[in-house]
Write a sequence for this structure.
């Protein structure tokens, strides 16, 4: 996981770096740049996954750096760590595609809440969710996918999970803030980019499923639920759970295998989630997932 | 209008987010004779307001030690000034003044000691606070500047 920190203050570079190191990623690689020009060169050669940049720097500002990255067609997530707090500047940053703006000074939790969604996504962008949202019906002659029954889902989870998971049907509901952060998996058929299935785990379902496929300590699970931050160990488990679901859908609905196009987390944009799952023409099933520790997690499977 | 209480609260919150040493308000008055003992930094926060920070250099070193997480002996004056400039940057960024100045931005800078007394005497004091970090002195003030006479 490559992260570039851009700040003209060495002291602030170190504070941000220490904050990131506390995330607990074993494979974190952090490079520091003291100005935007150096950051641009490093970005072209090293291709970080995420850039955390100061806003006000001599010669080139953080927002100018963002525009330069865009011109160079470098697809790198950018977030700001800055004293800049004016609504106009924050809007400018968001409009330019910044993932977040963290105000200095910050505490570690604030930094983690901002950074984790960027690190936990595996390539999906908000724009891709919008494509799913607006995607048209299935092509003519294409088979309609059959979504799994709750019993099938429970059996599938039982095959690989180390803890017992109960699955039952659940009435569909409008998204609620308490569902967040959600884990979202987008699936398509092999070698095709069209998204055929969207799977959503709410926070409770993410922790139940994400911790059931590996040895995740109970304190990590409790912290995830209380702090509403899904750590990498649980995200990894969610990826396996999504894979299991894709196998069931593929077998029941079509001979071709579904494969995951991308996985992401939605941390705050409940409206986006609402638009994604609220379309009436979308085929949707909601499942209740529970284990001994947590109840009423929600899994939603959609065929856009 | 920036009152002294708010100025201290912001300074304390920012200082203590970086340093393990508490910042405590004192009732001391800044004497002209002690001005040259301190290291001085300034930053404009609007066309008409300027923040000035006077700090014992050793307190600056203490701050740099915490921010950089390096032993004091390994630090240079450049490291110390970088830490205090970032402190100043964060304090100024968190002081809320009139909205019309929201777009205003200035980089904090180190000032020569000889410039300090004329500034403190000639500019109108909006608010100021004296404080201590351990036994080291910390003084911060917001001054009203006359844009017609102010030079960089």
């Amino acid at each position: 996981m490559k992260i570039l920190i851009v700040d003209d203050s060495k002291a602030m570079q170190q504070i941000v770096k220490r904050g990131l190191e506390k995330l607990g990623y074993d494979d974190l690689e952090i490079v520091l740049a003291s100005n935007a020009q150096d950051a641009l060169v490093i970005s072209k050669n090293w291709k970080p996954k995420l850039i955390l940049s100061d806003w006000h720097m001599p010669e080139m500002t953080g927002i100018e750096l963002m525009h330069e990255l865009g011109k160079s067609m470098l697809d790198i997530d950018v977030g700001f760590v800055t004293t800049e707090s004016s609504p106009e500047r924050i809007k400018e940053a968001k409009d330019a595609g910044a993932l977040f703006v963290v105000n200095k000074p910050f505490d570690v939790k604030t930094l983690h809440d901002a950074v984790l969604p960027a690190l936990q996504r595996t390539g999906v962008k908000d724009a891709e969710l919008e494509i799913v949202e607006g995607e048209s019906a299935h092509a003519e002659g294409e088979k309609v996918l059959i979504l799994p029954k709750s019993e099938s889902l429970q059996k599938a989870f039982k095959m690989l999970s180390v803890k017992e998971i109960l699955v039952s049907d659940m009435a569909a509901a409008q998204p609620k803030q308490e569902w967040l952060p959600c884990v979202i998996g987008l699936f398509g058929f092999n070698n095709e980019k069209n998204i055929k299935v969207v799977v959503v785990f709410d926070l409770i379902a993410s922790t139940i499923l994400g911790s059931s496929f590996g040895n995740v300590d109970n304190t990590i699970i409790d912290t995830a639920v209380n702090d509403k931050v899904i750590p990498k160990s649980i995200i990894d488990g969610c990826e396996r759970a999504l894979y299991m679901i894709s196998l069931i859908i593929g077998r029941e609905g079509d001979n071709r295998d579904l494969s995951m196009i991308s996985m992401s987390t939605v941390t705050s944009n409940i409206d986006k989630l609402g638009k994604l799952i609220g379309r009436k023409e979308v085929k949707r099933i909601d499942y209740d997932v529970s284990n001994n520790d947590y109840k009423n997690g929600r899994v939603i499977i959609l065929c856009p | 209008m920036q009152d002294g209480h708010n100025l201290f609260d912001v300074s304390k919150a920012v200082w203590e987010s970086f340093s393990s040493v508490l910042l405590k308000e004192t009732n001391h008055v800044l004497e002209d004779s002690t001005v040259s003992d301190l290291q001085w930094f300034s930053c404009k926060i609007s066309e008409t307001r300027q923040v000035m920070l006077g700090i014992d250099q050793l307190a600056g070193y203490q701050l740099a030690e915490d921010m950089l997480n390096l032993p004091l002996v390994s630090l240079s004056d450049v490291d110390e000034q970088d830490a205090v400039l970032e402190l100043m940057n964060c304090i100024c960024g968190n002081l809320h003044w009139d909205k019309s100045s929201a777009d205003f931005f200035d980089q904090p800078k180190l000032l020569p000691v000889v410039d300090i007394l004329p500034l403190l005497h000639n500019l109108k004091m909006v608010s100021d606070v004296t404080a201590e970090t351990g036994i080291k002195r910390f003084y911060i003030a917001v001054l009203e500047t006359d844009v017609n006479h102010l030079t960089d």
User: Anything to note?
Assistant: Chain B has one domain: 4-144. The helical segments of chain B are 4-18, 32-35, 57-68, 77-94, 116-122.
